[in-house]
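RECORD TYPE: inverse folding
INPUT: structure tokens
STRUCTURE:
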């Protein structure tokens, strides 16, 4: 079936009383490979396809999906979606119902986006050999390196979208992501180095030399950490690198700016629109329109174009990320952040490419201007409680700053505190920029996002403890 045939399903739903309807058809091809102890394990190739039909009727949603793209299956799916919407509408309180404004602008015409590459032309053996070469490379880098684990995943997703408000979209986006973990052992001590990789496009467009650089970095980190001392605890001024800074932006700020979290009372930024929450040097954005970044979303799963949304400008909360429903409920414009994992998932508010904007310092100036503190690099894990406004991040490695100079290498630095306190305590931001991409999970769905930041400095951060 083509777009015209799917338009027929939209007309069918509208004829049954729907106020709004969208049809999203997705086909996906994927490949997964896990490498451990120089052996390829858990390899899998997959193909899936199906359609999701969503109906808004009487102020309530109905959604149905099918993995069968036959005329009969799609007709039945449409009927079920309408029935579910009617059923839901009869049970939803009048105050909780909503209507999508007629004034909204969707991507119209036959809009085609492609970062396809030649997915079908690349044999799996080529990818397998490249991953095995990474393992060999890390093992040859040092006698202390004893193991390399590589977790690789790629897919090509083709999407067709039509809705009753004029959206007509076709997009084909390939992406690659993974993790390289290197273990070094020496004198009874074991340490792990880690790097993540991500790429928009298919294998034939990836820079294999960039993967070599990441493998070298992971191996060097593991070996370095063998001689690192435990990080001291207390309150410190810290300088944060691009990767750890990006994690903070994503986990602490990004999730708190997702409008569905605000509507459910799960964000520390509830009631803060238009209010100052951070130092004036802090500006944070989300932008799905940037080609090449892993959260690239030129048109979201609802037909809204991706765009640059300034979430915090000079320390003031200026906007939130929205899908159709949250924008309608909050009297805002949708921002292109309504994203669904697959055809059988409903769109929800998700980040795309979330970043702290550049400042006017250099990294070296930040360190030289810090008389005493810790330079924190990369991350092991991180989580936040957006409703409480608290966070805990574990960084991979760190160096003590003494007299404006980097000195002893330390490990095990755990950073904790309150999100709003950190925003207010960032006093200097560098003019560089770095990012990493990966899969972000929320409400059972996983989508690609990237987070980025320059180096920046924060005062009075709790290291190795918790803030009262």
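DESIGNED SEQUENCE:
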């Amino acid at each position: 079936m083509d777009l015209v045939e799917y338009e027929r399903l939209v007309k069918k739903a509208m004829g049954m009383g729907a106020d709004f309807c969208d049809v999203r058809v997705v086909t996906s091809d994927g490949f997964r490979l896990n490498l451990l102890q120089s052996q390829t394990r858990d390899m899998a190739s997959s193909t899936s396809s199906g359609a999701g039909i969503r109906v808004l009727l009487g102020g309530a949603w109905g959604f149905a999906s099918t993995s069968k793209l036959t005329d009969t299956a799609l007709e039945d799916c449409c009927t079920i979606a309408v029935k579910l919407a009617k059923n839901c509408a009869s049970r939803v309180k009048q105050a909780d119902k909503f209507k999508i404004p007629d004034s909204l602008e969707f991507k119209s015409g036959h809009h085609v986006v492609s970062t396809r590459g030649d997915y079908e032309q690349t044999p799996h053996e080529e990818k397998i050999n490249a991953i095995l070469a990474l393992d060999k490379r890390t093992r040859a880098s040092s006698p202390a390196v004893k193991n390399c684990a590589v977790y690789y995943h790629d897919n090509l997703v083709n999407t067709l979208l039509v809705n009753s408000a004029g959206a007509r979209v076709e997009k084909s986006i390939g992406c690659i992501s993974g993790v390289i973990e290197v273990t070094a052992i020496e004198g009874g001590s074991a340490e792990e180095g880690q790097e993540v990789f991500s790429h928009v496009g298919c294998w034939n467009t990836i820079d294999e030399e960039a993967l070599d650089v990441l493998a070298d970095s992971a191996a060097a980190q593991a070996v370095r950490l063998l001689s690192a001392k435990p990080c001291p605890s207390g309150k410190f001024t810290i300088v944060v690198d691009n990767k750890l800074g990006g994690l903070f932006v994503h986990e602490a700020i990004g999730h708190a700016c997702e409008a569905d979290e605000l509507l459910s009372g799960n964000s520390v930024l509830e009631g803060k629109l238009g209010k100052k929450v951070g130092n004036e040097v802090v500006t944070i954005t989300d932008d799905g329109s940037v080609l090449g970044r892993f959260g690239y979303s030129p048109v979201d799963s609802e037909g809204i174009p991706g765009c640059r949304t300034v979430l915090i400008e000079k320390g003031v909360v200026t906007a939130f990320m929205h899908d159709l429903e949250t924008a309608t409920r909050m009297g805002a414009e949708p921002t292109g952040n309504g994203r669904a994992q697959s055809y059988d998932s409903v769109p929800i508010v998700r980040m795309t490419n979330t970043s702290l904007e550049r400042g006017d310092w250099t990294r070296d100036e930040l360190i030289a201007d810090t008389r005493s503190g810790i330079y924190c690099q990369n991350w092991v894990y991180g989580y936040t409680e957006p409703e409480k406004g608290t966070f805990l991040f574990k960084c991979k490695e760190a160096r003590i700053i003494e007299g404006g100079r980097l000195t002893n290498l330390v490990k095990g630095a755990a950073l904790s505190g309150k999100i709003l306190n950190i925003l207010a305590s960032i006093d200097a931001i560098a003019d560089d920029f770095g990012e990493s991409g990966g899969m972000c999970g929320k409400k059972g769905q996983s989508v690609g996002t990237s987070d980025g930041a320059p180096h920046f400095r924060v005062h009075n951060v709790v290291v190795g403890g918790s803030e009262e």
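NOTES: Residues 71-89 form the longest helix (19 residues).
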